Amino acid sequence: MNVAVVLVAAGNGERLGAGIPKALVTVAGKSLLVHALEAIQKFNPTQLVVVVHEDHVEEFQSQIRAVYHGEFAIAVGGTSRQGSVANGLALVKAELVLIHDAARAFASPALFEAVAAELSNSDVVVPVIPVSDTVKRVSGNDVLGTEDRNTLRLSQTPQGFRTKELQRALSEAPSDFTDDAALMQAMGFSVRSVPGEVNAFKLTTNSDLDRARQDFGQRATGIGTDAHKFSESGQLVLGCLVWPELPKLEGHSDGDSIAHAIVDALLSAAGLGDIGSNFGVDRPEFAGASGEIFISETLKMIAAKGFSVENVAVQVIADKPKIGPRRDELEARLSAIVEARVSVGATTTDGLGFLADSRGVAAVATALLKVLG
Ligand code: CTP
Ligand code: MG
Known about the structure:
Elements: E1 3-8, E2 26-27, E3 30-31, H1 32-43, E4 47-52, H2 57-67, E5 73-76, H3 81-89, E6 96-101, H4 109-118, E7 124-130, E8 136-139, E9 142-146, E10 153-155, E11 159-162, H5 163-172, H6 180-186, E12 191-195, H7 206-216, E13 219-229, E14 236-238, E15 241-243, H8 257-270, H9 275-279, H10 291-304, E16 307-317, H11 327-338, E17 341-347, E18 360-371
Parallel strand pairs: 1-4, 1-6, 4-5, 7-12, 16-17
Antiparallel strand pairs: 2-3, 6-11, 7-10, 7-11, 8-9, 13-18, 14-15, 16-18
Helix pairs in contact: 1-2, 1-4, 8-10
The structure holds cytidine-5'-triphosphate and magnesium ion (MG).
């Protein structure tokens, strides 16, 4: 099919207020521009025109080059979205065109396909999603009535057109329309809809950006294990709790196998090595340090790499102490330190090995991290 894509990405993003064009704001380490281009690359149009912000042409160009492997042209944005669409469309040679907002960065390649396919039945195609809230018509604070939401849809992009028809409509447009299908309808064209996508929502405000970062943030898992043997004296500290009936575990620090397994899992998920490579004997300030201090230091390190903790799971392997009676307390204490949900399970080794006769405590932990921003 002879179909071009015009990606409009020239807006300032005033409502987001990031201080840079919205298309350059990142989610999971990639700009909205790049996310949108990845979907377009998979759709593989015959031509791509990206409409970019006039003050950042080089930055846009280098990001496009880095991810887009086809031919592309660049146009500079206008003062309104409609002006930007017109500037991009002027460069389109293909018979059909899909106009897409970079602000809808998570629309899937399948949505581009569906809109393009429906162009064989209609001059204008728009993806829509149902309205789930009850919608009121108002005048100031006065509610004038309630709309029948079954007849209402929310409009998305990409929207599909015949290039020449949209070019003519834009050159004759009486005023600015917030979407191109609305302009075409005002010019007398009939418009067909296809089912849109929840993920094709438009990032407009900071709460949209938070939602995108929650939904599309990359995740990384890590694993850690640790084992320490009981000493003859002292008092056991395990999972950052004191266990008065058992002696201390031996170690360079306080021997807290649970805390150390958690630290290793967090470091491993963030690609930061392990406890030995970060807090080893060459860092005497950590000699005898509590598990809580290790975990807190580790959280600072992973935050500096742009990660936050989603959850941590721990399994203790030991005859003693019995974890069950204090599981709630353990989970609450560790969750407060890690600032995310920590779950703790326990098992014995059925009489096998060094953990069978209460000589020590081992723990295995996994961590799930999320990349933000
Ligand atoms: N757009 C554009 N040129 C403009 C205005 C908007 O190319 N002069 C693009 C935006 O980059 C975005 C899409 O149109 O991909 C939808 O616009 P909107 O969400 O309103 O983005 P901004 O105009 O950047 O945001 P704001 O209105 O908050 O400034
Ligand atoms: Mg705008």
